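Why run this: before we spend reagent on co-expression, it is cheaper to look at a predicted model of the complex and decide which construct boundaries make sense. The entries below are exactly what would go into the expression plan.
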Amino acid sequence: KAGVTQTPRYLIKTRGQQVTLSCSPISGHRSVSWYQQTPGQGLQFLFEYFSETQRNKGNFPGRFSGRQFSNSRSEMNVSTLELGDSALYLCASSLESSGGTDTQYFGPGTRLTVL
Amino acid sequence: AQSVTQLGSHVSVSEGALVLLRCNYSSSVPPYLFWYVQYPNQGLQLLLKYTSAATLVKGINGFEAEFKKSETSFHLTKPSAHMSDAAEYFCAVSVPPSGGSYIPTFGRGTSLIVHP
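The model came back. C-alpha cells follow.
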C-alpha cells in the first residue's frame, strides 16, 4: 500500500505570496491532518479534515486554510506569506481519527522557505 | 488542556547502551500516549502507543514504554542502542474528545545521538 505523499517536497516563496500544498493520504483513510514543524515552536496542529469537512482547527490565523476532496486528498493554503511561515508542513492520514486509537501515518513533508 | 514535556533536548548514548527518553504529560482525563520517531528529511513514524490497555507497551525496533499514572510519565526505553536509532523522538498526548475529535499535542522532541 502506498504511503502518504506530499507535493511539492520543497518550495521557495517570497513574502506576500500565497502557496498551496497537497497531500494524498493512504488509500481508505478518511482523516487528514496538517501540522507545522519549526525549530522554535516544534510540531503544532493546524487542522484536521474528515469526509470533506474540517473537524478541528488549531490556533493559527485565518491565512491558513485547507480543504479535502471527495477522494480524501487534501490541500492547505497559506495566503500573504510571512517570514515566520517558513517551516516543514507535515500531513498525516488515518482511518478515522487524528489522535485516538487509529494510527496516524505521516508524509515526508513539504519544506517551505519564505524569503 | 493536555501538555507534554520531554526532558532533555539531546540525549547521547554509546552503541549497545540503554536508551531512556523521558516524557511527562499533563491531562485532566485518562490520555492516549504516543511515541514517534523522525529521521532527517522524513515524516514521523509511530513507534508505539498507549490506549488504556496494558501499561507496558512494546513497539517497533525494540522500543518499549511504560505508562505510569502516578508519575504522569511515559518514558521510552530500549535495552541496547544501535547506530540506526539516531533520530529525533517525539512524545505526544491526546485525550478522548468532548464534542470534537482528538487533537494530539506533541512534545518538543529529543534528539538521540548514538556514539560508536
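Chain A has no helices and eleven strands. The mean pLDDT of chain A is 93. Bring this page to Monday's planning discussion.
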